[in-house]
Every structure is written in structure tokens, then in C-alpha cells.
Amino acid sequence: ANNMVAALTPEQQLVGNDFKRNKGKLPWPVERGMITAGFGKNEYAGLVGSSYNNNGIDINTTPGTKVRAVFEGEVTKVFAILGANYTVLIRHGEYLSVYQNLVNVRVKTGDKVLTKEVLGEAFTDNDQQVGMVHFEVWQERNILNPEDWISK
Q1: Per-domain residue ranges for the chain?
Q2: Which member of 28, 30, 98, 121 lies 3.0 to 4.6 Å from 61 by CB, making a disulfide possible if both were Cys?
Q3: Each residue's pLDDT tens digit, 38-91
Q4: What is the separation, in whole angstroms, between the first and last Cα of the chain?
Q5: Class of domain 10-148
């Protein structure tokens, strides 16, 4: 067993099992949006032969859009990242959902959240007049493709 991972309570295990059962059916973290960068290897726009690895998906949405929890869980961390505004981590049993580039965050560590509960707003790029949010799904330390988890 991995000593770094805390044992899950029976309640957390149930939430994790429910999360897993909803693979492919979870709501998007925003009501309306478009994936602008997928999971895994992405090419830099206009730079042939240069790429980066994306741990999640990037979603463009309308300015001021509310970012919502994709499933019930517990907020385990809220923190600021330079250049990426606020990040919210939610634990769903052995799974984690990560919401990055948020402003006006409404939740704090320890909060229990429900599916579609508002966490904050997508940061708006004033030059492009578009809201942008980065979304990840993890199973403990394994990065998963969020597109496999959210509804098509």
C-alpha cells in the first residue's frame, strides 16, 4: 500500500465508486464551452515541431462564466498559482477534479460541494474577451483524460 495516500472513509469510498460509475456522464465544469486544447500532446499554435503536454483540457467560455463542480465531493485545496489565478481541488473518493484559472472563488478547503455547485468564475482574458478554464481529473497520482469523464 502507498503510505502517502490516506485511507478513505466508507463515505469517501462510496463517493469514489459513484464518480467512477458516472464516467462519460459527468457535467462539464462550465455550462457552455469549447475545448481549445485537449489532453496530452498539443502543438504550440504557429510553431511547427514544438509541443507541450497538457495534464487536462483547456476550455474557452463566455466572460464571467461560473465554474462548477462536476461531482459531489470535498474541497481539499484552494490555492493561487502565478499566472493561472486560483486552483480548486475536489476529492471524490480516490478521484480528484482540478479546476484552474478561477477568479472570485466561493469555496474553501473543507467545504462539501454538490454536483454543479459554483466554485468561482472562469478568468476572462480582456484582450480576447473570452473566459478560460483548465480542468483535470486524477485517480490519486494518475492523470486521466477528462474528455473520457465529461458528457459528450
Answers
A1: 10-148
A2: 30
A3: 888 877 666 677 777 889 999 999 999 999 999 999 999 999 988 779 999 999
A4: 35
A5: mainly beta
